[in-house]
Automatic annotation (TrEMBL), chain A:
SMART domains: AAA. This is ABC transporter ATP-binding protein. It is a peripheral membrane protein. GO terms for cellular component: plasma membrane. Its main location: membrane. SUPFAM superfamilies: P-loop containing nucleoside triphosphate hydrolases. Pfam families: ABC_tran. InterPro entries: AAA+_ATPase (IPR003593), ABC_carbohydrate_import_ATPase (IPR050107), ABC_transporter-like_ATP-bd (IPR003439), ABC_transporter-like_CS (IPR017871), P-loop_NTPase (IPR027417). One of its GO terms (molecular function) is ATP binding.
Automatic annotation (TrEMBL), chains B, C:
It is found in: Cell membrane. One of its GO terms (cellular component) is plasma membrane. This is Xylose transport system permease protein XylH. It is a multi-pass membrane protein. InterPro entries: ABC_transp_permease. It comes from Mesobacillus subterraneus. It holds the Pfam family BPD_transp_2. Keywords: Cell inner membrane, Cell membrane, Membrane, Sugar transport, Transmembrane, Transmembrane helix, Transport. GO terms for molecular function: transmembrane transporter activity. Part of the binding-protein-dependent transport system for D-xylose. Probably responsible for the translocation of the substrate across the membrane. It comes from the Bacteria. The lineage of its organism: Bacteria, Bacillati, Bacillota, Bacilli, Bacillales. The keyword Membrane applies.
Amino acid sequence: MSEYILEMKQISKEFTGVKALDNVNFKVKKGEIHCLVGENGAGKSTLMKVLSGVYPYGTYEGEIVYEGKVQQFHKINDSVNTGIVIIYQELALFPDLTVYENIFTGNEIKQGALIDWNETIVEAKKMLEKVNLDVNPETLVKDLGVGKRQLIEIAKALSKDVKLLILDEPTAALNEDDSENLLKLLKELKKQGITCIMISHKLKEVITIADSATVIRDGQTIRTLDASKGEITENTIIKNMVGREIQDIYPKRVKNSHDEKVLELKNWSAYDQKLGRHVVKNANLHVKKGEIIGLAGLMGSGRTELALSIFGNAKAYKLQGDLLLDGMPKAFNHPSEAIKAGIAYVTEDRKGDGLFLLQDIKSNISAANLQRISANGVINENEEIKVADRYKTSLHIKATSLEQLVGKLSGGNQQKVSLGKWLFVGPKLLILDEPTRGIDVGAKFEIYTVMNKLIEEGMSILMISSELGEVLGMSDRVYVMGEGEIKGELPIENADQEKIMQLATQ
Amino acid sequence: MTLINDLKTLISKNIRDYGMYIALLVIFLIFTILTNGLFISSRNISNLLDSAGYIAVLAVGVMLVIVIRHIDLSIGFLAGFLGAIAAILLMQYHLPVYIVLPIILILGTIAGLFTGFLVAKVGIPAFVATLAGWLIYRGAILQVTEKTGTIIVQNDAFNAIGNGYIPSIVQINGLHLLSLLIGVLGIILYNFSAVSTRRNKMKYNFEVVSKQIFILQLVFVSAIIAAITWILAGYNGFSWTVIIILLVVLVYHFLTTKTVMGRHIYAVGSNPEAAHLSGINVNKITLIVFGSMGLLSALSGILFTSRLQSATTTAGTLFELDAIAAAYVGGVSAAGGVGKVTGAIIGAIVMASLTSGMNLLGVGISYQYMIKGGVLALAVIFDVITRRKGN
Amino acid sequence: MTLINDLKTLISKNIRDYGMYIALLVIFLIFTILTNGLFISSRNISNLLDSAGYIAVLAVGVMLVIVIRHIDLSIGFLAGFLGAIAAILLMQYHLPVYIVLPIILILGTIAGLFTGFLVAKVGIPAFVATLAGWLIYRGAILQVTEKTGTIIVQNDAFNAIGNGYIPSIVQINGLHLLSLLIGVLGIILYNFSAVSTRRNKMKYNFEVVSKQIFILQLVFVSAIIAAITWILAGYNGFSWTVIIILLVVLVYHFLTTKTVMGRHIYAVGSNPEAAHLSGINVNKITLIVFGSMGLLSALSGILFTSRLQSATTTAGTLFELDAIAAAYVGGVSAAGGVGKVTGAIIGAIVMASLTSGMNLLGVGISYQYMIKGGVLALAVIFDVITRRKGN
Amino acid sequence: ACSGTTGGSSKVSVGIVLPTKDEPRWVQDEQRFKDALANSDYTTEILFSQGSSAKEKENVETLLNKGIQVLIIAPHDGAAAGAAVEAAKKEGVTVISYDRLITETDAVDYYVTFDSLAVGAAQGQYLLDSVKGTNVPLYLYAGASSDNNAFLFFEGAWKVLQPKIADGTFVIANSTEAEALKDKQELTRDELGKILGQVTTNWDPNEAKNKAQTHLTAAGADLKGDVAVLAPNDGTARSIADVFGTDSDISSFVITGQDAEKASVQYILDGKQSMTVFKDVRTLVADAMGMAIDILDKKTPTTTGSYNNGKVDVKAKQTNVIVVDKENVKKELIDSEYYKASEFKGL
Ligand SMILES: Nc1ncnc2c1ncn2[C@@H]1O[C@H](COP(=O)(O)OP(=O)(O)OP(=O)(O)O)[C@@H](O)[C@H]1O
Ligand SMILES: Nc1ncnc2c1ncn2[C@@H]1O[C@H](COP(=O)(O)OP(=O)(O)OP(=O)(O)O)[C@@H](O)[C@H]1O
Ligand SMILES: [Mg+2]
Ligand SMILES: [Mg+2]
């Protein structure tokens, strides 16, 4: 038997018009942690979906050799039965079902033909312990935050008899603490003999954990790096990923903040009637003209809620306290009012609530500001095309035409469309919620560059981010949130990872 | 008074589940008072349950269809069509009942599977696929009855399904012995299973309701079973229709709550994408649910034809809307993933009670429609509001 | 032959949009051949369009409702109910037509807004809310006609809406002059707007179709307008019903494609969450769409009542299913966000053509139902398959 | 304009529009109409309206397009068919209102009828003749309250029954509205509507069964024993009879019907249904077709009287209805070759 548990040979996969994979070769050694890296849309997720049978045998070309045998997976269960378990980029959970049902759906504990619910609960508890998650297994998943959901996904994978575990950007939604936990978990699993493939855009993680790493670019394998030979460094990875060297991940800029406060919150609280508790408590914060403010914090610390409460109270919380915009007190009842007042909000979940996937790029970019290109309620379509074209060019959106459906774009390009839509509103305050989540370094750099350009033009940016590097690299000042409260404010000169984490976990 | 407090939290926590039962109780009370007790009489309750039968089985089927986020409009005319086929096989081909019934049930399942195929494999939205089915079965029923018009079924065994009662063995004080026995058996089984579930949970150290509450619950449910049995035993005892409804409820309740397949149905309803990625064959589940819908449509057609002892050219008209309304009154959620077999049955009984009660009171037909519409709206508003709170 | 190649890519790119027109053409051809030309006769086409009128306006409304991911089952009986109210106002309260029409249209809008309120604000799923409406309006129409039964409308102005034709001014060789003028005007306007759009696009350096293709397109559309005008002018010219349909199409086409509100409707249909966060008032859009549905239901009721010159107790029965079927044949997508006004109208005309053609051929009613069901299924299968390819 | 302006070879001389294929009665008519013209030069085409006045109008338009000269139409709703026949009249087509009179229009030329009021009257009379003694419980049922014909049948029966209700021969058992109006012979549409709202079967046997069960549940012992039941047609009569037959407190019941459906003939033979009003469709078809042929041959059809339809007096040919019960079922239905003896058991 060869040292490889998995060999994927000459894999090609075409979607109508797009060659997502082009003769990819990919080998994974038994018992190693193998990272798969590459730009957005490089084909990483697609390769893993081919492996797991989501794209069944026959819909792709090439050969999969697993444990020395050529495999033909016709459906997902075929791969699961051989011990390949995959955790997808888009979480696959059932919001209306309980945690324990979620963990064992598709893999039920049976007694004869019946489900043994009691055993299920007991086993679920064990799995939750394994991933260090302390929730009641009878909680409904829809009542949990995105971070906890990720852990439940992992618990679910562990409940199966797994030999090869695949994680598609598992830490994208996690804060540093939880990410670290997860990486520790992976190392433990490795000790138990479980092989692991992990896709990640967080290069630091890759460097700390990978035994080897394969870089994919434009649907082709570029190179496999070996940690034991010291090949896995940030520079080599990036060079292979983008085909050029990037000197600095965060583009340099001059500090150009002015004194006028664009936004100020005083004793700001938001009460969620559905949850029956405060999601934001007594927050005091301000953003000055031309500033980038970083908003850091752990998962579930209420940063998204804070943003939503500012952005026209989009989730209809009960609000208390004052919101001043350019020094004037404001009360918004709907996002449209906030937009009118000059606030824009790029959402965290671009597919779920950011974009119109069934519509083309042009309609998406104009969607939030149709008034600007219309007279008496009638749209000037030529104007619309011009505007869309402008943002497509300036943001380097890769697409065949302005009429391409947004659902067909890769994650990074979708994020750029989302950004374009909000820039077209012409805001003075731009709120970015996890602006680079799941985006490759190249695209990240472009987005950072755009941010810098915007503040030079006098815009202010409130950036919510779980990536501390990004927070430290881009912000002028940092606020740290925890449990719905602002736990502290750090000027960038005084800020470092330790201080932020200290405040966040206070 | 911890008992009272326990009760309060129990009720407020489960208000959505109990709401329907409370509504049913209120409807029963109101009509009983307004009709001077006539409504609750043995005979009326027996008739009411019989008249709800063919809608109740459809409601169970369509509840599951709604749980997996689809809809089926074709079930009414499918039931009518299959009922007509049953009558033809019995009367024109002179096949015996024990052959006709399985044939019809199999035909129904095949028809349902075909709908499921269109929805799951071809990918037509269920609303349109079944709207097409509606037209097609409507034409089909006209076609097969064209030569004969209404087909009278002269077959005692078949007609007993919709009109007969289980044998009484012995009549005691005008009460129906076998029915009483069934009732007693039901109570014993219920108590036994409840106690063993509780014991089991305690063995695992899971949280259970307090002992007092538990006993209260046992007494309450036992009393209800006893009351229904007593009422029915006072007329002709359990009808075959009621027995069939009970069987359908038991089987479907069991399938949906205890088996892997049942869980997969709810998983698909809750998040089809996630279900697919969890290795659940969504297409298979869709096929199964539509297949079961076809099976229950066939059963409904049999119940209806047998009840009228004849197959008419318009049998099945708008059954689908009645069944869907019953399912919604019974608390199924249009967003998918939520719905109970018992709910669907209670929903069907609520609607049948309204008809029966208003008929007893001599309420005009135009008001009957409006009141039913109002009740449907209220039921869903209640559901929506309690769900919102529950979140 | 670049022209041919251009044409090929054009068609294969737009096969979904053209499919419907091709289907209509095929249906017209088949029936014309089978009936020896009777189908395409002036008179039959005129009757056919008139008979499609009240369903066509409903189809436009419900298409938009489906675009924003809802459904409305109550529209049939709402149309019937409002038609009855119109008849009552005209005949029992002796109000003049010019007062009755606005009242009915306003009432319809209010009814629609109320449904919209239940859906948007209270949060009831549209299917159930409008199923309740279905029951309520069904009761209501029985209620208001209970005293009188069918109400005969004796008002020439009102009855002309569904039965009359626009004045001809002068009859030339048996052709209807005013209708011809309208047709010519239509052709001129179409050509003018097409040319100016193209010129405008070229000014911005946007991609346009080649000159040859463009001319072909102009000639083709002009020919179709001319043919329809010619056919209609050969009978009594444009009927008021056709004029009303044309107006509804023009207004709704404009609203949905050229205005901010129209764009917002499609945005809400495409992703309600994203629409909300883009500053679109989703509730308002929902209210507007249901309000427009109510308005069009009222118009449908007026057309229908006028066409029959009477309000019957069962008016509106199952209109909703016909309208929904027409909308789906016209290419609306159940997933939301996709659907066209012209599609809905073509869908309604396809269904009316089937009825008319099969009637001319003397096809039995049972087969008519089945064939319509089959066509509906085929239309959606075609739509699903081309959409899948398009992806 | 005159008829036949449109081209095409598929010309039809007599167009026939019938209300619905859902009721066996009209399916029978279809066959008999076809047979009636089988050996003449004229052609016919029959369309069904499926209970929709709109479809009825479409049907008429289709037939006009085919160049008919005579239209025989049994309207779904006599009041709502005006628009349809006016369109025919405009084309110079002769309109024969078949079985049901089209009201409030001058576009009807002839009326061939069994007279719906007479049907109801025959049902009422049969009940009167069959019961003995006084205080006989009377259960009333009617067709759909959305159907104008249901009103006519009920009205006919009420006119006959009402005096005997007023004098105590009958006691109304299942309608408070009817009870309240028992002293009034001429009911307004509104009053009829109230009664029908309570006792409607919607022409649906299942609805009839539900109502009958409820009514028997509600009725005390004094309203049972030997009873009379007014059922509007055969479909509902059978399901109501099934319910009454299984109530042990009902010692006997007389129940009416209408249409002489095969199924009900068997019920009559079995003693489960008392009577049915037999409307010999053959006579009606022959009359209607005779008229049509006369018109096509440019002769004047013979008529026996006239009916006022609210606008004009329509020349009419009336056919008597025949009451069929166990006594005369063989003579009227079998011997007259309306049905074959082999279709029934127990003759
Ligand atoms: N279902 C699909 N239909 C059409 N094209 C697709 C589909 N899924 C992926 N693609 C395309 O295939 C290419 C590879 O996509 P994939 O999701 O594998 O990228 P990725 O490397 O996982 O990117 P990311 O880091 O953004 O997740 C992209 O161009 C994408 O647009
Ligand atoms: N639908 C929900 N039901 C119940 N609780 C929720 C829901 N959504 C969020 N929460 C809770 O609200 C709090 C804030 O959640 P949220 O994840 O939006 O915060 P965040 O700071 O934006 O975190 P993240 O970095 O994950 O975006 C958390 O405690 C979370 O568990
Ligand atoms: Mg990916
Ligand atoms: Mg967040």
